[in-house]
Write a structure and sequence with these properties.
The protein is an alpha/beta fold. The protein contains ten helices and 20 strands. A five-stranded parallel β-sheet has the order 6-13-7-8-9.
């Protein structure tokens, strides 16, 4: 059934047969998530393109594929399609993985480019049309190095748009319930997940300013239920949420990017420990490890304090597994001194994290040699 508010305490539910049911409650939780968004300014995008949701319901392999977007969804899809041996191009307007650490994001892109994914940077699609049978012609505009604009057209079997998602709130009748939303349709919430109508809550992708990650929504929902029904006062902490981008070379992160750290703290208080390393499992097959990199961002707020870790970034195999463990240490306020006094497990990639000793400030080569 699909529901919409009649007033602030009543929801009308309509099932597939058109039967209506009125439901009243003391509290409501909006957790409708979001749907892929097709860019309105691209002629033929919605008619001939597919979304990341559609990709997994295709009846045949997608063939020569153009992925439009620079989000983690775009890079993940382009990455695994390239890994399957398909001819894949990734078109982006500006930079990959906006909002993530810039150095790490560019290393992710470099690895993908070196392993078969073609990157079309500074490009904006203009039109998608059907050409020969089973193919679609895509015309785009490129910003050249001399600031001139150039148009190009190529044919693809599949055109996938990963240009963001929009919350499914337009049909909810939120205005009738007194719930305020922002320009993109997301519910404006407080730290307790409450909307402007204080008995109506929003979690997950439908809420403004929340990480669009399923585990985040699940955790927020659990904590909200405990506050409503189990006398808890614990709020969701969105500050140190770990996540991983599952590109061919996985990128795991928790805490601040290097850019965010420099924006928040004085330059002299920041210390970045880093290392290029070679995973043991890459040695025998001779797998390229040039983009395997890690860094820990620390701040030392006064001469007597320890180096508090405020950001962790790991690019390499099983990054999600590695990052999940170190995420706990950041939440507990770990320092660089805590990390460097931890004994590593040999021979693992995570061992290299606790062995790092070279800082960016030193200018020394951070490449790990030997054991």
């Amino acid at each position: 059934a699909r529901g919409s508010f009649v007033d602030s305490h009543t929801v009308r539910a309509v099932d597939k047969k058109g039967k209506e049911t009125l439901l009243t409650a003391k509290n409501f939780v909006i957790a409708v998530g979001g749907r892929p968004h097709f860019p309105k300014g691209v002629t033929g995008a919605e008619e001939f393109g597919i979304s990341s949701d559609d990709l997994f319901s295709l009846q045949k392999q997608p063939g020569r594929t153009l992925v439009v977007g620079a989000s983690y969804v775009a890079l993940e899809c382009a990455g695994f399609l390239s890994g399957l041996g398909l001819d894949v191009s990734l078109m982006m307007r500006s930079i990959p993985l906006r909002g993530f650490d810039r150095q790490m994001s560019e290393l992710v892109a470099t690895h993908m480019e070196g392993h078969g994914t073609r990157f079309l940077r500074n490009c904006v699609p203009l039109n998608v049309s059907q050409s020969s049978e089973g193919r679609y012609a895509v015309t785009w505009q490129s910003l050249m190095e001399n600031d001139s604009l150039q148009k190009d057209t190529e044919e693809f079997h599949t055109v996938m748009f990963a240009t963001g998602r929009r919350p499914e709130t337009s049909y909810l009748g939120l205005d009738k319930a007194g719930v305020e939303i922002n320009s993109s349709g997301k519910v404006i919430t407080s730290a307790s997940e409450a909307s402007s109508a204080h008995h109506i809550y929003a979690i997950g992708d439908a809420a403004e300013g929340r990480p669009e990650l399923t585990p985040v929504a699940i955790q927020a929902g659990k904590l909200l239920a405990r506050r409503l029904f189990d006398s808890s006062s614990l709020l969701m902490d969105y500050d140190k949420v770990a996540t991983t981008v599952f590109t061919p070379m996985e990128y795991g992160t928790v805490g601040l990017s290097e850019e965010a750290a420099h924006h928040r703290y004085d330059e002299d208080t920041i210390e970045v420990f880093h290392a290029f390393y070679k995973p043991l499992e890459f040695s025998l097959p001779g797998t390229d490890s040039s983009c395997c990199y890690m860094k820990v961002i620390c701040v030392k707020l006064n001469p007597l304090s320890a180096h508090k870790i405020v950001g962790f970034h790991f690019l390499g195999p099983n990054a999600g597994e590695v990052t999940q463990g170190f995420a706990l240490s950041l939440r507990l306020g770990a320092t660089w001194e805590d990390l460097s006094s931890t004994v590593g497990i040999h021979p693992t990639c995570a061992e290299e994290v606790v062995k790092m000793s070279i800082t960016k400030r030193s200018g020394l080569d951070p490449t790990v040699t030997g054991c």
